[in-house]
Amino acid sequence: MAPMGQPAAAAEVYVPMTLQVWRGLVNWVGFFFQIILQILRGAPCLPHLLSCISSSSPPAFRPLPVAEVPLNDLSSSAHVENGVVDGRPVEKLTVRFFCLHLLVVLDLDETLVCAYETCSVPAIVRAQATEAGLKWFEIECLSSGKESDGKPKVNYVTVFERPGLREFLKRVCEFADLVLFTAGLEDYARPLVDRIDVENLFKLRLYRPSTVSTEFREHVKDLSCLSKDFSRIVIVDNNPFSFLLQPLNGIPCVPFSAGQPYDDQVIH
């Protein structure tokens, strides 16, 4: 995904479809290049890549406390946010599910929705999206910046839902447990997800503090924090670098933008 960096820059300017396609292509080329480079150099993360294939032990990151939680014991509104789980502070939590069935992890930006600063969205794009039946809404996000009077700066964001999003979530819930995993910050992502998940279909929401850094990339989504059984978990993300640590579990999708009102990725 293209994570929202800070709430002040919580949304990117509108990007034409052609540029979106080229960016996706460059991401894939870079992804495979880094894997090849690791093999040639014998980089430290190579053993981890091989371990994913052979289902051996996780990589040599600093051990984290582990909370083994059966899914049935988690309320549908449970959150792991900024080192706090349902109001209980933890040093750094790894939540592992006893997966009784499939666990589907979903990215947010450019996978389920696309979001832009409201002032940057051309009127014609909004009109075309509305004419095509694309659902959209606006949210307010608190920024890390301050106004002249010292009050937190408010960022206005326009969010476009991927066509068929809500039906897709309902159908997946029939055979799998849903987890939202975004590299976005909670102040931006939480109110957004509250709008698209009014039925609390996500069993868990993970934000930027739950991502890890590797030698080449930051904000990588390590699935070992969710399950010890990689045969029962998949992640859907438009950015292949997000599942760099478990490439066999990744399902890439075409990045979604407001310039693609007839997108059918989740419909099919």
From TrEMBL:
InterPro entries: Dullard_phosphatase, FCP1_dom, HAD-like_sf, HAD_sf, TIM50
Any coiled-coil regions, as ranges: none
GO MF entry, a single one: phosphatase activity
PROSITE patterns membership: FCP1
One Pfam match: NIF
Domain FCP1 homology: 97-268
UniProt xrefs under Gene3D superfamilies: HAD superfamily/HAD-like
NCBIfam families: HIF-SF_euk
Record's protein name: FCP1 homology domain-containing protein
Naturally occurring in which organism (per UniProt): Malus domestica
Taxonomic classification: Eukaryota, Viridiplantae, Streptophyta, Embryophyta, Tracheophyta
